[in-house]
Amino acid sequence: MSTEIEFHKVYTRNSKSPWDDLARVVMAWQPETKQGIYMHVGVDGINGFAISREFQSKLPASIRGQYVCSVYADIIFHIFQKDIEEYCQSQIEQRIFKNTFIVGQDVFFSEIAKIQWQMSYDKFLEQNSQPQ
Fold this sequence. Notes:
By secondary structure, the chain is α+β, with helices and mostly antiparallel strands. The protein is about 40% helix and about 20% strand. A five-stranded antiparallel sheet has the order 1-2-3-4-5. A hairpin with a 2-residue loop joins strand 3 and strand 4. Helix 2 packs across helix 6. The longest helix is centred in the C-terminal third of the chain and has 19 residues. The radius of gyration is 15 Å and the shape is globular. About 25% of the residues are buried. The model has no long low-confidence stretch (mean pLDDT about 90).
């Protein structure tokens, strides 16, 4: 079983996701289980996320599933912030991370970013708890 995975991978064949992907970025990955969180990227930017079964249980029921569209990116980053930050900081070189996200990990995982993710999550919960 491999203990390594390519952080940013440009596809050479079609993705299994429901989107027209060009590449995927591993946001968190557990080599022992091969479970992870993968950001799928297309011509217009982020298409969404593929969430392995082990991680899906942490998602709110209304978006729980293998594939989560990009409109919920802040929610994904909030819920899995510790997993993503730990993986990226321990496994991804700063240079490679910055080449992918334009900013370094210190900015990407800044307190301001975390506050924004929390606010988006709180708003999501508020909107989804109101009767329809």
